[in-house]
Specification:
Distance between the termini of chain A: 39 Å
Strand content of chain A: 25-35%
CATH architecture of one domain in chain A: 3-Layer(aba) Sandwich
Largest interface: A-B, 36 and 36 residues
Helix content of chain A: 25-40%
Catalytic activity (chains A, B): L-aspartate + ATP = 4-phospho-L-aspartate + ADP
Shape of chain A: globular
Number of strands of chain A: 20
GO cellular component, one term (chains A, B): cytosol
Family (chains A, B): Belongs to the aspartokinase family.
CATH topology of one domain in chain A: Carbamate kinase
Protein name (chains A, B): Aspartokinase
Oligomer: homodimer
EC number (chains A, B): 2.7.2.4
Radius of gyration of chain A: 22 Å
Chain lengths: ~400, ~400
């Protein structure tokens, strides 16, 4: 029988009623003849509670223990979902990551999936089981310890299963009914996109659109997984939501597809760093080793052999970045005057494949922000996006102004 | 280095502060030179929350999914305890049941530990690790699925580890400072016992004294594990709490050691059962297969080839018992008129090794209850205990009256 992967996020399984509603939707697909692999997140709020406990216990936590604790939320939902399906007379059982096993790297808290053997679950499908409920977001390292894939990792789990099992489609059920031109909570002019290219979705996801996790879109692009984002709170047709697909499948599009934002950013500046070859490598290797996800990097003009180095990273990783840099300073590996952390910044980006063939997008963006009196702190660009770091208090204003200026409320 | 097992129950790890307090106590033993195996329960309330979700989802749940869900509570505590110890610079890591692996039978929700390989943890001790934190209450079946040992199973986990590692002692930290002659919440005349025999402890635990789980005491008795019950909320000396030990190590004792009670009892009566050989086997095999823990059994005098059969079981298993018996009735395996469940009963027992050599304990017990106007519904006896089922509303009165009559407030 054809296989369908259905993924339910935290708000879609937030309590027993919602789990039942999700299970009914699974039942509909089973009735159509699919063998279904359901990937579940933790009940919403649970992961935050667990992460809070870990961080309060140990600010510079052992990521292996973090993973052991935080992965428990998904296990609970997986068992409850299997029980709910059984109550509906749908043959189902749950799998925890290590039981499949979802084989990952040893990079705890941000592990990569390396292999998903299909024999175990396929055999059960052959014996009459119709739904395999798999705890998302987790796997097992070569050392036999529990790993997690990082926040939002359940999307990645879903796409990886869809690829491994050659699924007909991978439906991501969430609390929004698709991908929007920007966050509808910031402007009611935000418009749902029927289709979006993998490339644009990648930029939107990584920039904080929060609908799909970056790696899940990368994986879907690489393995040509048909990915659909849709709401678990509305009745659905087969064409609901937003289809994330190849660029060629999109007939016509705006120059800019969307405006993304990210509140969870910190701007870190190393003052008066010795400006010599290899210094950037020293800094960013140390940060990488400490598990800090550096995003934007800017190096100021050098004066008298010293320079300022600015980078951004998630707010939650500031303490870790500070420790890593203090450590290499005290061990003599790096010389700098001061490390200044600014946690009150936000990132705003415009994204669109059309930028490749249209010039002037950057100029227009800077002009719009300037007219609103918003100071730009850091700029980075790629082929299909332009991002700026600004004071967090201006974030909503910036998004609204850019959405208006690029006329994203109107379809192409 | 000598190994010590320390087990912390749910109230001893109820929040991060209490986990820190427990970790400090572990640190004291590490400083004395012990390699410590810490067994943890779920934070108090967590297991009940999980069980509640399972039962609401599926009243006649698949025990394999129940185990997958309910075991997650201990995993959280194990990781948090390991992190807390690391923060105190004590080298520690957590193990979930399947990682050790704690090999159990396939009897989900009430599995028995069959083997605990020691090589994995012993190797880590050899590499400098000082504390292995193990999630209690859980293991893995031969089929590779998660099992749980039943409520209170963390005590059993602790004793099994103490036996497997040849630990010098197994300290059970709980919310009481030892074993009492009866529940101090029922009478303030309850007195802490310095020592109690394994046999007496077995009867007290299985009868609801709630200090130690029955199987843990059985295991301790079989493997001669020195078992100490003590409070995690008071400063402790090496002789605090109650030592559970061999009968020979107790110099002098009262005829009756304690009065136990159990509120969580239901009295089930099968009316008008065909009285023929094999009928009891049919009934109790069916209940056993359904996972119902039958305690007391009474068969009334037979009239005209039919009899009434009464048994008691935990209140939570009434629905399961009813279904099992209805099933064999409808399949023609058993003929009876009606099944009557009385959930408003309680069990009260007097326990003491001294009963073996002293007569008249039963007569005295029945006289005391009669004087208080308490009707006895069912009686069972063993070599060292007498139990009665009474209306639940008289439970406290019965315990107080018996404690007074046997002068348990006075040491021997």
């Amino acid at each position: 029988m054809p296989v369908l992967v259905m993924k339910f996020g935290g708000t879609s399984v937030a309590n027993l009623d919602r789990i039942r509603r999700a299970a009914k939707r699974v039942g509909v697909e089973v009735a159509k003849g699919y063998d279904v692999i359901v990937i579940v997140s933790a009940m919403s709020g649970k992961t935050n509670e667990l992460v809070g406990w870990v961080e309060e216990t140990s600010p510079l936590f052992d990521a292996r223990e973090y993973d052991a604790v935080v992965s428990s939320g998904e296990n609970v939902t997986a068992g409850l979902m299997a029980l709910t399906l059984q109550e509906m007379d749908v043959p189902a059982r749950s799998w925890q990551g290590w039981q499949v096993p979802v084989k990952t790297s040893s990079s705890h808290s941000s592990a990569r999936i390396e292999e998903i053997p299909t024999d175990n679950i396929t055999a059960k499908f052959g014996q009459g089981m119709r739904v395999a409920v798999v705890a998302g977001f987790q796997g097992i390292s070569p050392e036999g310890r529990i790993t997690t894939l990082g926040r939002g990792g359940s999307d990645t789990t879903a796409v990886a299963f869809a690829a491994a099992f050659g699924a007909e489609r991978c439906d991501i059920y969430t609390d929004v009914d698709g991908v929007y031109t920007t966050d509808p909570r910031i402007t009611d002019k935000a418009r749902k996109l029927d289709r979006i290219s993998f490339e644009e979705m990648l930029e939107l996801a990584s920039l904080g659109a929060k609908v799909l996790q970056t790696r899940s879109v990368e994986l879907a692009m690489r393995y040509k997984v048909r990915l659909r984002v849709l709401s678990s709170f509305e009745e659905q047709s087969d064409t609901a939501g937003t289809l994330v697909c190849d660029e060629e499948d999109i007939m016509e599009s705006n120059v800019v597809a969307g405006v993304a934002h990210s509140r969870d950013e910190a701007k870190m500046t190393l003052l008066s760093v010795a400006d010599r070859p290899g210094i950037a490598a020293t800094i960013f290797s140390a940060l990488s080793d400490a598990g800090v996800n550096v995003d934007m990097i800017v190096q100021n003009i050098s004066e008298e052999g010293r320079t300022d180095m600015t980078f951004s990273c998630p707010t939650a990783q500031v303490a870790r970045a500070e420790k890593a840099l203090a450590d290499i300073k005290s061990s003599g590996g790096l010389n700098f005057a001061e490390l200044v952390a600014d946690k009150d910044v936000a990132k705003v980006s415009v994204v669109g494949i059309g930028m490749r063939s249209h010039t002037g997008v950057a100029a227009k963006m800077f002009k719009v922000l300037s007219e609103e009196g918003i100071n730009i702190k850091v700029i980075t660009t790629s082929e299909i996006k332009i991002s700026v770091l600004i004071d967090r208090k201006y974030m909503e204003l910036a998004v609204q102004a850019l959405h208006d200026a690029f006329e994203l409320d109107k379809a192409a």
